[in-house]
UniProtKB/TrEMBL annotation:
This is Sulfate transporter. GO terms for molecular function: secondary active sulfate transmembrane transporter activity. It comes from Drymodes brunneopygia. The chain crosses the membrane at residues 54-76, 96-119, 173-192, 212-230, 335-355, 376-398, 410-428, 472-501. InterPro entries: S04_transporter_CS (IPR018045), SLC26A/SulP_dom (IPR011547), SLC26A/SulP_fam (IPR001902), STAS_dom (IPR002645), STAS_dom_sf (IPR036513). SUPFAM superfamilies: SpoIIaa-like. It is found in: Apical cell membrane. Belongs to the SLC26A/SulP transporter (TC 2.A.53) family. PROSITE patterns: SLC26A, STAS. Keywords: Cell membrane, Glycoprotein, Membrane, Phosphoprotein, Transmembrane, Transmembrane helix, Transport. It catalyses: iodide(in) + chloride(out) = iodide(out) + chloride(in); oxalate(in) + sulfate(out) = oxalate(out) + sulfate(in); nitrate(in) + chloride(out) = nitrate(out) + chloride(in); sulfate(out) + 2 chloride(in) = sulfate(in) + 2 chloride(out). It is a multi-pass membrane protein. GO terms for cellular component: apical plasma membrane. Its main location: membrane.
Length: 689
């Protein structure tokens, strides 16, 4: 039977587009109100805020995250190659802006290790190109910690004309200029992606690519912190192969290790890891996680200050952290041009991590987010703070988990966290003057536990899917051994190639009938399947298009043990020889048989079927090459008196075959060539026989 297709009304796309354009360009008070409430989701949920029910959880989670943010912000400034004050600015502004524009109730947006690393790599590269010495660190200046001129924070001051800046600008001044320009451009990219609804880009970052990228970047972060752990001074490597070069320099200078830093690092790592493990084990008994990092920083700062570790043992310390806010400044346009390419992967990674975390927690707590609005929120979390000497931000999994575990209900907790950071910015920052850099390195390294533990999951990942494991290994290796940006690009390209290879060489099978049923399955995978006499059933488990056409034909010929082109050529050759013998009057054929016996030789013994059924259930689409391939098969097998029947075609494939002329001009033979199940095709073949 042939099912009757519905007649679809053709849509005038031009009129639809014009109608949408007119609707979007119209402006009414109601529409303006909806636009503002969509752009600032806080206007929707804040009036409905259940104060008695939510306030305690929000305040507690906000305080805990704020306490965690302070040491992390100071520590991650090492990754970004910037002063700690800029990390505190970043944490403050990101929380305020996401409170206004974000749609997720739980994610914690702020400073993130991978983003800080990507910013730091660009900053270091540009500093080198500008002629600055990356190891020219300023000796910690004494004083009350108030804001000082940027040019005085570095012992070497350059009168530069770099990228359009005609001013006396020190290393710190130029570094934050690069970071803010990079952040501004990344934010602009994210806003443009939101305007043009390019959120689908995140679909090309699979879980294996993201995990591999995070693990590879974690190895890079770990490597960059080792010199602080043991207190040695080595040149900061840049470019491809930074990880290997850094480790070579570490081993060359290991004899210069600072014993004070080594002992401090060992103690801090033991304390942090032990506290984290105990916290993970007994987290169900704790109302909120213990702020181990803050305790370690406070104790280490006191020991360093009163023990005079910097003066007596030359232990490197954070130095003076100014209080208050630096006047806002517009990022330099000429610097934006220098970092425009670097900002693209930064924008994509920042957006993908934020949206994936938002969707994960929205699903867990049964509410919805708007991915496009998340892109706007993250974009403006980069654009606006870039005017206030901040750098790029993203959502962070570890802090988000802490927020949810401490009772977070809404983004009010983000405002509370921002207030804690503000308190440090205004009053407490100078107290961290004597904090050793090795303590900050320990905090960073211990925070990488989750990413580094991915190595333990490799056997389980390999057991589940070997291809995904290979994608993870390639992405991780490229991110660690080449660079983070190249690693991300390699991971995306390699994962796409894996998909292409899968469609180029998919599974193929000959099917047998499950006894006493109308169902058919792979003859090599299942026992006790019966073959249908004189019928071959072939399954191809992929779309049929130009890239896998040859594999389709080779698999078909191999499994059916018949190449119709070779068989046709053999028959023509045989007939030609017979005609030559007949012309000579010899009634014996070329193989010594009589003329009457020759007909038997024209049908070779290996052709044990008269009907070929193609199971098209796994063929999702056909391109022009695919349609032509099926037409060639139909013609070639017809020359051998073998019928070709199609089964289980979807409407898209049927339409492609119709347009390609597979069923003839008037589709008259369609009922005898197309069937809605394999069993119908087999029954038809038996009736025809």
């Amino acid at each position: 039977f042939l099912m009757e297709r519905k007649t679809h009304v053709k849509i005038n796309r031009k009129e639809v587009m014009l109608a949408k354009l007119r609707k979007s360009c119209s402006c009414t008070p109601r529409k303006l109100k909806n636009f503002l409430m969509d752009f600032f989701p806080v206007l929707r949920w804040l009036p409905k805020y259940r104060c008695k029910e939510y306030i305690w959880g929000d305040v507690m989670s906000g305080l805990v995250i704020g306490i965690i943010l302070v040491p992390q912000a100071i520590a991650y400034s090492l990754l970004a190659g910037l002063k700690p004050i800029y990390s505190l600015y970043t944490s403050f502004f990101a929380n305020i802006i996401y409170f206004l524009m974000g749609t997720s109730r739980h994610v914690s947006v702020g400073i993130f290790s991978l983003i800080s690393l990507m910013v730091g790599q660009v900053v270091d590269r540009e500093l080198l190109l500008a002629g600055f010495d990356l190891n020219d660190d300023a000796p910690p200046a004494l004083g009350d910690g108030s804001l000082q001129n940027d040019s005085m924070s570095n012992p070497t001051v350059f009168n530069l004309t770099i990228a359009g800046i005609n001013a006396e600008c020190g290393k710190e001044c130029y570094a934050i200029g690069i970071a803010t320009a990079l952040t501004f451009v990344a934010g602009v990219y994210q806003v443009l992606m939101g305007i043009f609804r390019l959120g689908f880009v995140s679909m090309y970052l699979s879980e294996s690519v993201l995990d591999g990228f995070a693990t590879g970047a974690s190895l890079t972060i770990l490597t960059a912190q080792v010199k602080y752990l043991i207190g040695i001074k080595i040149p900061r490597s840049q470019g491809h192969g930074m990880l290997v070069i850094t480790w070579i320099n570490i081993f060359r200078n290991i004899s210069q290790a600072n014993l004070c830093d080594v002992i401090t690092s060992a103690i801090c790592i033991v304390v942090l890891v032990t506290a984290k493990e105990l916290g993970d084990r007994y987290k169900h008994k704790l109302k909120f996680p213990f702020p181990t990092e803050l305790v370690v920083i406070v104790v280490a700062t006191l020991v360093s200050h009163y023990g005079k570790l910097n003066e007596l043992y030359a232990s490197s310390v954070s130095g003076a952290i100014p209080t208050g806010f630096i006047p806002p400044k517009v990022p330099e346009f000429n610097l934006m041009l220098r970092v425009a390419v670097d900002a693209l992967p930064l924008a994509i990674v920042s957006f993908v991590f934020t949206v994936s975390l938002s969707e994960m927690f929205a699903k867990k707590y049964a509410y919805t987010i708007r991915a496009n609005q998340e892109m706007f929120a993250v974009g403006f979390c980069n654009i606006i703070p870039s005017f206030f000497h901040s750098f790029a931000t993203s959502a962070a999994l570890a802090k988000t988990l802490v927020k949810t575990s401490t009772g977070c209900q809404t983004q009010i907790s983000g405002v509370i966290s921002a207030m804690v950071v503000l308190l440090v910015l205004l009053f407490l920052a100078p107290l961290f003057y004597s904090l050793q850099k090795c303590v900050l390195a320990c905090i960073i390294i211990v925070s990488l536990r989750g990413a580094l533990r991915k190595f333990r999951d490799v056997p389980a990942r390999y057991h589940v899917n070997k291809t995904d494991t290979l994608v993870w290994v390639v992405t991780m290796s490229a991110s660690a051994l080449v660079s983070t940006e190249i690693g991300l690009l390699v991971g995306i390209v390699f994962s796409m190639l894996c998909i292409i290879v899968r469609t180029q060489r998919p599974r193929t099978a000959l099917l047998g009938q499950i006894q006493d049923t109308s169902f058919y399955e792979d003859d090599l995978e299942y026992e006790n399947l019966s073959t249908v006499p004189k019928v071959k059933i072939f399954r191809f488990e992929a779309p049929l298009y130009y890239a896998n056409r040859n594999y389709f034909l080779k698999s078909l010929y191999r499994l059916t043990n018949l190449d119709p082109n070779l068989e046709a050529a053999r028959r023509k050759k045989f007939e030609k020889k017979e005609k030559q013998h007949l012309k000579k009057g010899n009634h014996r054929t070329a193989n010594g048989l009589g003329i009457g016996e020759t007909t038997l030789q024209l049908v070779p013994k290996q052709i044990d079927f008269q009907v070929l059924v193609l199971d098209c259930s796994s063929i999702s689409f056909l391109d022009t090459t695919g349609v032509n391939t099926l037409k060639e098969i139909l013609k070639d097998y017809k020359n051998l008196n073998i019928s070709v029947l199609l089964a289980c075609c979807n409407p898209s494939v049927i339409d492609s075959l119709k347009r390609g002329g597979y069923f003839g001009k008037d589709f008259g033979c369609m009922q005898e060539m197309l069937f809605y199940s394999i069993h119908n095709a087999v029954l038809f073949a038996k009736d025809q026989k």
